[in-house]
Amino acid sequence: MINQDRIDQLPDFQKIPDYLQFYADTRPDSEALILGDARINYGQLKESVDRYAKALIASGVVKGDRVATLCTPHPDYFITFLACNSIGAIWMGLNPKYQIDEYQYVLKDGTPKVIFSRCQIGDRNFFDTLTVLKQQNEGLEKIILLDEPTETTEFISIDQFLNTGNAISDNELSQYYKAVLPQDPALLVYTSGSTGNPKGALIHQLGLTKVARVQNGYWDVDPVRIINFLPINHLGCVGDISMYCFVAGGTQVFMEDFEPDTYNRLMEKEKITIWGGVPTSVQMSAEHENFKHYDLSSLQMIIWSGAAASEPLIKRLLTICPRLSNSYGQTESVGSICFAGPTDNIDELANTVGAPVSCYQVRIVDEKGNQVATGESGELQVRGDFIMVGYLNQPEKTAETITADGWLKTGDLGLLREDGNVTLVGRLKEMFKSGGYNVYPREIEQVIEEFKGVAVVAVVSKAEPLFGEVGIAYIQPHENLSLDLAQLKAFCKEKMANYKVPKQFILMDVLPLLPIGKVDKKALTVLAQTAVR
């Protein structure tokens, strides 16, 4: 349930830079960003953001221009994001795990004028990649290196770049700042592209600030101290963690590369109050052999989103912290539109995504757009002033996704239970027909997750001559536990109709994951086409 008192305690601004100014004025010494031993308070953050913003102005960046950043979850990412917001530019994140063709696609579509980038990330050197990108993208005027590589004339060092901003006065920066409107796009996020090429969702300042305030009403911890390890090109990183924390004047602790034991150690060291992630990352941390040695008494809540958590994991988490919450949303909705809890109710946490946000318009409709009855499945849709502006350069796709009267079609199937909570049935595009019956993979996955020894499961479909399509279940077992697939199949037959039971159960040591931590069903679907019965 939402805590309105918590929301009312927060400053109510519609523009992102207003929060930075507010906290720099009211709590300049409070920690804003942490990475290792580096600590940046709100006063220092404001100074850094202003320097970057002035240099962007000196570089010719104006309102509506795109600016990209290629780095890990790091203070550099958030500073460049805030600097762009301050002058009305649109920020876009680039994932260090991308390959050259993936960079080329988003750069040719997003056409950033400037890229901030590290040259060395882990074992990967980006010098050659950046050189190619600079040569093959005409609108790309500058690449600014956030680290200090070997001497080169190809790119601009961060010090050189920031020095150009010395020519810009505070008054000139203020004029840019005043011209920014709440409805101006602030963020460009490319969707995962599971059903074709990624689409660039434009998200405005009002959407990011409003959703962050609502999240604070559900995830009502004080103070907010949270770890951010998610890739910077995902809304989960920018919205669900960074903006949620920033709007509350909290402390964001960055982790450049997720590793369970390191994450647990960081929770103890930094006195983390809210443990957030996807179920995969939460499970990996909770099940690490050293977990019991850490003092996590600072935790006030554990949250997850992006996928369902199994009952065994939820029961394990309840022994750590009694306040748990999950939520449901997507990039286009700019954050969660349903929240479960905070609660200790296992049924609500395992089998639903909670209730729709009361101040949002949320409905479940059939193919004709008619609202369905309680207990019947249909497409979840949401309407409000916070949803995405639309897809960059794709008006047809925007019109397919947002109706003429403003409803965002999520493509997710759900049903409203009698208790007011929503159960997700699956994706419209994941649903398949087997022998004439509609089959929803999520329903099958929930059954398989009940079987002892199953850590992660994903069900996809493949073509089959007799039934049209059949289900294939890919299963990652818990470490040190063996699975009897014959017993699992018998278990499924007891729990659901025969046409829902997967025709194959395939064990994998580790299921493939997307960068955000969700199971990569696109990769599994490709794999399923070659699976031999």
Description:
With 533 residues, the protein is an alpha/beta fold. It folds into three domains: 150 residues, Rossmann fold, CATH 3.40.50.980; 170 residues, Rossmann fold (3-Layer(aba) Sandwich), CATH 3.40.50.12780; 97 residues, ANL, C-terminal domain (GMP Synthetase, Chain A, domain 3, 2-Layer Sandwich), CATH 3.30.300.30. The chain is built from 18 helices and 28 strands. The longest helix is centred in the N-terminal third of the chain and has 17 residues.
Topology:
Blueprint: H1 4-9, H2 16-26, E1 31-35, E2 38-41, H3 42-58, E3 66-70, H4 75-87, E4 90-94, H5 100-110, E5 114-117, E6 120-121, E7 124-125, H6 127-136, E8 142-145, E9 156-157, H7 158-164, H8 170-179, E10 185-190, E11 200-204, H9 205-218, E12 225-228, H10 235-247, E13 251-254, H11 260-269, E14 274-277, H12 279-286, E15 301-305, H13 311-318, E16 324-330, E17 335-343, H14 346-351, E18 355-356, E19 361-365, E20 377-383, E21 390-391, H15 395-401, E22 408-416, E23 422-427, E24 432-434, E25 437-439, H16 441-449, E26 454-464, E27 468-477, H17 485-495, E28 504-507, H18 521-528
Parallel strand pairs: 1-13, 3-4, 3-5, 4-10, 5-8, 8-9, 12-13, 14-15, 15-16, 27-28
Antiparallel strand pairs: 1-2, 6-7, 10-11, 11-21, 16-17, 17-18, 19-20, 20-22, 22-23, 24-25, 26-27
